[in-house]
Each structure stands twice: as C-alpha cells, then as structure tokens.
Amino acid sequence: MKVIIHFGPPKTGTSAIQNWLLEHRELLIKYGIYYPEHILDSNGVSSGNASAVFETQKSKFKDARLKKPALIEEARKHKCRTLLLSSESFMRRLPVLARLFPKANFIGYVRPPYELLESGYNQRVKQGGEVDKFKLEQAKKINHLKKFGPMISEIGAEKFTLRPYEPSIFFKNDIICDFLETLIPKFNNEQELKPSKQINLSYTLEALELKRWLNSIELERPLLRKVHLVLQSIKEGTSSFSVLTKDEYEAQKTASIQDINDLNDICEIDNYAELISSIEHKSQKTAVSQEISDEQKMDLLKVVAQRVPELTGALKEKGITF
Question: By its UniProt entry, which InterPro entries does this protein fall under (predicted)?
Fold first, then answer.
C-alpha cells in the first residue's frame, strides 16, 4: 500500500485542498486513491485526517499504530492502492508518521515566513483568544520552515516533495490543480476543474479589531466560536492591509529568502528560482494603523448580534449594551 501524507503546513491552502478532496472522494477512488472522510465546519474548515491517525493531540506512536490497520483495510476495501492523508497538524508529527508509515511520501508547501507574520497573528485573534496588538517579535516565532527543515533531514529528503505556495507559480495558477498535478500527474489532462474555493479567509481589519476586543471580555468559548464563524464570512470592510512598517516588511522579506535558501539546501524545492523571484518582486499591502473607531466597532457588533442573538445577553451581563 502506497501512503502519501500532505502535512500543510498551516496557512498554505490546506483547508481548500481538504475541502476539494472530501467533495471528490469517489472520483479519487477511480484513480486508486483512498482519502478518509472527516468533518467540516460551516466555513468549510477542518483538521483533516488528524483524528483518523491520532485520537488526540497527546496520542503516542503506539496509539496511532492501533489505528493504522483500519485505514489500510478501508483503502483495500475500496480497491485503492494509495492511501492519502492530509492535516496541517501532521507537520509537528512528521517523525512519528515516518515511523508509522516507513515507506510514505510527504507533500508540503513552502510559504515565505514573512507572509505568515500577519496571517498567523490573524489566526491567533480568530481562534486563539489574542487580545494584544500585533508585535513583530512575537510573530517572528511562527516560522514553519525552521520547524520542519530539521525533521526532513532526519527522515530523508528523498521522501519529500516541496511545492512553492505562490499563486503565480501554481500549476494553472490554482492550488487544487497544483496539488493534483503532484498527486496524479495525468489528472489535470483528464478532468476539467472549477477554480478552487477560498476557505478559511482572513478577517477584515474591522472584524479583526472587533474580535480582539471581544476576546478581552472573557466570553464563553462556544459563543466566541459562533462569533468567529460570522466574522470570517463578512467581506465588507478593509480586506487588504498590513500592520508592518515598510522597513519591517523589507527586512522580513530578506530574512525569508535566507530561510528558503537554507531549506532548499536540505531538500530541493520545486520551482525554487521562481519562488525567490516572486518574493523579490512582491509589494506590501496598504499599511494601516491597527485600530477602528467606536462607531465602526458598534456597527459591526450589531451585524454580528443579529446572527448570534445570545451575544447581546452575554455582553449585557458584562455591563456592555449597544
């Protein structure tokens, strides 16, 4: 049984890929690829196949080994010779997965770290309860390249395919087409694909600031989760922005190029030269101050409260009315 493991990492289109794979499981089976089912939230986001291999975040190798036979058997039952697994949580467990599936091949996307500074912060506000404004020193700690580079060295670069996360370089300029070109080279010639859906979108500036304020009020997590799903679906507002200064942006671009060079020395990245060129020529989004007016905050709060009615009562208990 051939095993292919897509490990993300986070913020590299993983949700869009998983959404497509889940919707096209039967089509994949026709190509001899079995992709286990998993759930999606209302915005099409999921943890992929994480629970199919690891019951919890603390599961050990011995626990995963008990789940492996069922996965293999299910693939065989569907007459598939390839088992495909996908989860961005797999990135931190690559050595365990390599031990669990000794002959597995791994697919991952390389996104310049400087692009993750703000998107990672956005994610912490969305689902991590972040209440502080963006701080560069804290954001710089999120550098997936430095995390999985050493693991690739340990497992063996020959088992990895690394693709650039850059729309202008994607096969047919689409993340799904690019992933499938790596997974099933003949697929794009035999099937006509619709453009991939945009999944797990970033907040607008207004939504970001409202959620950051709500995080500070210590509301119940299930309620904040409902608020998050609404805010992520809102498209009105400032959608293209940067909270980095120009000098910070340029310095982080330079550092990212060095990080990618270091990773390429460990494991050759497909279209490496094109990726470096795209970074060098990319311009910063419009720089903004990380703040909105009280009027903007209240207007958006009313919109959210219409879709999450219990928010009004919860805020009233905290002495906040609007």
Answer: P-loop_NTPase
How many other C-beta atoms are found inside a 10 Å radius of the C-beta of residue 103?
A: 9
Kindly state whether residues 168 and 244 are assigned to the same domain.
Answer: no
d(CA 181, CA 172): 10
**Do 42 and 179 lie in a common domain?**
yes
**Cβ neighbours around 179 below 10 Å, total:** 25
For residue 201, the 8-state DSSP code is P
Global pTM?
A: 0.84
Query: Using an 8 Å Cβ cutoff, are 171 and 116 in contact?
Result: no
**CA angle at 19 for the pair 17 and 22, rounded to the nearest 5°:** 105
Asked if 210 contacts 98 with a C-beta cutoff of 8 angstroms, the reply is no
Q: Is 88 inside any structural domain?
A: yes
CATH code for the domain in which residue 164 is found: 3.40.50
Tally the domains of the chain: 2
Domain of 240 in residue numbering reads as: 205-315
Alpha helices for 161-237 (secondary structure H) = 175-183, 187-190, 205-215, 221-233
For residue 224, give every residue at least 6 positions away whose Cβ sits within 8 Å of its Cβ, in sequence order, or none.
129, 211, 214, 215
**Local confidence pLDDT in tens for the 322 residues of the chain:** 999 999 999 889 999 999 999 999 999 999 999 999 998 776 666 789 999 999 888 888 988 999 999 999 999 999 999 999 999 999 999 999 999 999 999 999 999 999 988 888 988 999 889 999 998 887 777 788 998 999 999 999 999 999 999 999 999 999 999 999 999 988 877 887 766 666 667 899 999 999 999 999 989 999 999 999 999 989 899 999 999 999 999 999 999 999 999 999 999 999 999 999 999 999 999 999 999 999 999 999 999 999 999 999 999 999 998 8
The burial of 152, by beta-carbon neighbours within 10 Å (0-12 exposed, 13-18 middle, 19 or more buried), is given as buried
- Is residue 107 within 8 Å of residue 180, measured between CB atoms? no
